[in-house]
Design the sequence.
């Protein structure tokens, strides 16, 4: 959907609209989601429902800017300048950076199981979206700035997993999500003030699309992913998130009638295998201890 609105090929209200800027898509996703979520939380539980101590609040604000805002924006830039395939496979090198970080910090040991899970996941994604085994008639569109944007998004996604896990073992995901979205929304207001947004003269149909897109692509997925980070260490959580391109392919096949090639089926199988490998318990007794708590509801 994002690729379609960037190129202006997505029809709204029966007509093709002019392209939507990646900056606005990133901005409205967090802003609209915050405007829906924050009043609901405060209305149900009062200010205490979202209150955080200052150190934790600062962590959420940093997570919102460097984790949510940066990863979303640069991922969309990568989609716009290259392709969905290239952007998503580079973004999902994030498990490598997460694994290297936790090993370098001595938080986990570099085990064959973790290395195999990350390698199989990335190989599976490459097969699923056509980076490997693509037809010669469909050459890859490589753009320097698009590739840089995709790598920045990858580093930001890795940070989002690491920092998010730390704060989510102490607080309920709705509280963390509300302040994370607030931080990203305020950041975008500074970068792209309202008068600049209005000057773009988007149609009412485009604004309606942006609102619906924000709700279905942020509130639901982010809350569920935050829940996953409460239960899983960052390495396992981010490997599980590699199902995203798999679901993209399967949804396109089910809803849009797009065929699934045998090479894609193999890629899907590899991603599923990587998730199973990543979730298997360690055999040795010296496995790292990971603090996991139940969600505070």
Sequence:
């Amino acid at each position: 959907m994002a690729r379609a609105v960037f190129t202006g090929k997505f029809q709204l209200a029966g007509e093709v609209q002019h392209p939507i800027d990646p900056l606005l898509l990133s901005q409205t996703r967090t802003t609209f989601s915050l405007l829906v979520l924050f009043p609901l939380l405060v209305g149900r539980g009062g200010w205490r429902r979202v209150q955080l101590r200052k150190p934790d609040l600062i962590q959420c604000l940093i997570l919102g800017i460097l984790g949510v805002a940066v990863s979303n924006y640069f991922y969309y830039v990568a989609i716009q300048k290259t392709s969905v395939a290239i952007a998503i496979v580079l973004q999902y090198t994030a498990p490598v950076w997460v694994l290297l970080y936790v090993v370098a910090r001595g938080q986990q040991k570099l085990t064959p199981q973790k290395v195999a899970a990350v390698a199989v996941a990335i190989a599976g994604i490459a097969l699923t979206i056509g980076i490997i085994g693509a037809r010669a008639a469909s050459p890859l569109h490589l753009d320097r700035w698009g590739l840089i944007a995709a790598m920045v998004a990858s580093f930001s996604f890795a940070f989002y997993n690491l920092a998010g896990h730390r704060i989510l073992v102490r607080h309920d995901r709705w509280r963390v999500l509300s302040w994370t979205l607030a931080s990203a929304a305020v950041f975008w207001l500074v970068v792209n003030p309202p008068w600049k947004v209005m000057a773009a003269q988007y149609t009412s149909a485009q604004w309606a699309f942006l609102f619906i897109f924000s709700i279905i692509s942020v509130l639901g997925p982010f809350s569920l992913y935050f829940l996953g980070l409460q239960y899983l260490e960052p390495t396992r959580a981010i490997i599980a998130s590699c199902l995203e391109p798999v679901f993209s392919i399967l949804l396109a096949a089910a809803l849009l009638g797009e065929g699934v090639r045998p090479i894609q089926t193999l890629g899907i199988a590899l991603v599923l295998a990587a998730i199973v490998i990543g979730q298997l318990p360690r055999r040795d007794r010296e496995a790292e201890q990971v603090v996991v708590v139940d969600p505070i509801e």
User: Anything to note?
Assistant: Residues 22-279 form one domain. DSSP finds 13 helices and two strands in the chain. Strands lie at 11-12, 15-16. Residues 54-81 form the longest helix (28 residues).
